[in-house]
Amino acid sequence: DMYRIEDIDELYNIGFEEYFYGDGVCLVEWANKVADEIPPTAKWIYIDKDLQRGENFRTIEVK
Q1: I want to staple 33 with a disulfide (CB 3.0 to 4.6 A). Which of 2, 20, 27, 63 is the partner?
Q2: Residue 12, CB-side half-sphere exposure with 13 Å CA sphere
Q3: Residue 31: CB partners within 8 Å, gap ≥ 6?
Q4: Which residue, 16, 50, 48, 47, is CA-closest to 34?
Q5: How far apart are CA 51 and CA 31, in angstroms?
Q6: 37 near 11, Cβ under 8 Å?
Q7: Burial code of 21-58, b = ≥16 C-beta within 10 A, e = fewer?
Q8: What integer pLDDT is reported at residue 42 of this predicted model?
């Protein structure tokens, strides 16, 4: 969860490289706050409310 990351130095202080470049899968919430540090091979998942269909509907897009 990158919501509370205030600056890029804080990201380095938490050791993000172990997560982003380690083995396995890493899911990052609020990734847009640290977009410059996300690996270029990352998949981005966008989840938005679909208010035309109702309050409980979402559209999901993977790029």
Answers
A1: 2
A2: 4
A3: 2, 38, 42, 44
A4: 16
A5: 24
A6: yes
A7: eeeeeeebeebebbeebbeeeeeeeeeeeeeeeeeeee
A8: 94
Q: Kindly report the length of the chain.
A: 63
Gyration radius (Cα) of the chain, Å: 14
> pLDDT (tens digit, 9 = 90+) per residue, 6-23?
888 999 999 999 989 989
Q: The tokens of 34 are what?
A: 């640290």
Residue 53 phi/psi, 5-degree rounding, is -95, -20
- Model confidence, pTM: 0.75
CA–CA separation, 52 and 40 (whole Å): 33
User: Cα separations (Å) of 49 from 29, 43, 46, 52, 58?
Assistant: 16, 20, 10, 9, 4
